[in-house]
Amino acid sequence: MRIITGSARRAKLKAPKGQNTRPTADRIKESLFNILGSFIYDKNVLDLFSGTGNLSLEALSRGANHAIMVDCSLDSISTIKFNATHTKLIDKSTILKADVFATIKKLHLKQTKFDIIFCDPPYHQDLCLKVLQMLHEYPLLTEDGIIIMEHAIEDKLPSDFHQYTLLRNQKYGSTTQISIYELKSNKSED
């Protein structure tokens, strides 16, 4: 696992020991960031179930403005801090050891908005749907923002969910897919 391009290009990232963290594979990450292209530049990022910080650190390396990385695991938080320091992106990072759902509520109360929300929870626990529901109740997305969800190939996420609509779905191999959501209002203006 490494940073693919940008200011921290080729920096190797550490992962927590054991099987509790499943970092996004480099080939999936590269494909995702090719889809995002220059959209990433100067954006504010929220990374839920951050694990290693892999996605946020890639975004920061490519010019994102700031990233808040949230995970409830002490091992993951320690790893994220190491990776953010190692890549020299710590000054653009806020790392929170916290429950994802409680954090969504707190950020909403502070009226914090994000251009990109990454969500890569443990597979097979319906957590993507729960996050979408929380983001419906406690919106955090900017008007032109997107939610990027990495989930198991078997998980079927809706094409429309309250104010969100599926912009793109991409399958990777036999285990993973990425679903990208945007606000419905963006579609109706076209």
Give a structural overview.
The chain is α/β, with parallel strands linked by helices and 190 residues long. Helix content is 31%, strand content 28%. The protein contains six helices and eight strands, in the order H-E-H-E-H-E-H-E-H-E-E-E-E-H. The chain has helices at 26-36, 54-61, 74-86, 100-109, 127-137, 184-188; strands spanning 44-48, 66-71, 93-97, 114-119, 141-152, 160-161, 164-172, 176-183. An eight-stranded mixed sheet has the order 3-2-1-4-5-8-7-6. It is globular, with a radius of gyration of 15 Å. The N and C termini lie far apart (39 Å).
Helix-strand blueprint:
Layout: H1 26-36, E1 44-48, H2 54-61, E2 66-71, H3 74-86, E3 93-97, H4 100-109, E4 114-119, H5 127-137, E5 141-152, E6 160-161, E7 164-172, E8 176-183, H6 184-188
Parallel strand pairs: 1-2, 1-4, 2-3, 4-5
Antiparallel strand pairs: 5-8, 6-7, 7-8
Give the structure's gist in a few sentences.
By secondary structure, the chain is of the alpha/beta class. 31% of the residues lie in helices and 28% in strands.
